[in-house]
Amino acid sequence: GAVVSQHPSWVICKSGTSVKIECRSLDFQATTMFWYRQFPKQSLMLMATSNEGSKATYEQGVEKDKFLINHASLTLSTLTVTSAHPEDSSFYICSARRENIQYFGAGTRLSVL
Amino acid sequence: AQSVTQLGSHVSVSEGALVLLRCNYSSSVPPYLFWYVQYPNQGLQLLLKYTTGATLVKGINGFEAEFKKSETSFHLTKPSAHMSDAAEYFCAVSEPNQAGTALIFGKGTTLSVSS
After folding, report:
1. pLDDT tens track for A28-46
2. Cβ neighbours of residue B98 under 8 Å, at least 6 residues apart?
3. How far is B82 from chain A (nearest CA, A)?
């Protein structure tokens, strides 16, 4: 089956620093990847759609300057949370699309102190 | 816009009992339908999907779901619950044949299994 790797699985950082999260499709190429955010006991909220070789498409209300997305290759998309603040603490999950199915990474828990 | 409704945010069953998790979608055109399971602090794992063809689809871990166009439903069932089935379950839809279309998720249903 298709495997999506997400790294790191957990990161703790100080307020004001930036954090980069990687999402890799290990055994397939993905022209489209997605970034979601999940609050405790809630569903997934789509943040942005990451397209290889072009700018990401952000959902309404998501600050593109705060959540920088880069999809430089067919197997890697990165999400950088810039100048993180405690309210950015959350569970971030990526997915990669293959033949109309999305395969998810294991998620990254971000804690901003 | 597409929406997904999962009736019951929390379902509790006894081990060995039938599991029924409900999902309804809003669309005049049948979308692609998915059920995902999430264990604590983990990503989502695909249980099963419906795209075209047979309306009763079987997935992993003994789960199955039936697409009913007339009811715009895609309920998830398992004949006999196991303790390891306790998790969060999400129903999701996407527009068919539209590359790059994100999934729209329901709010999720927490399944608890008691011994």
Report:
1. 998 899 999 998 878 889 9
2. none
3. 22
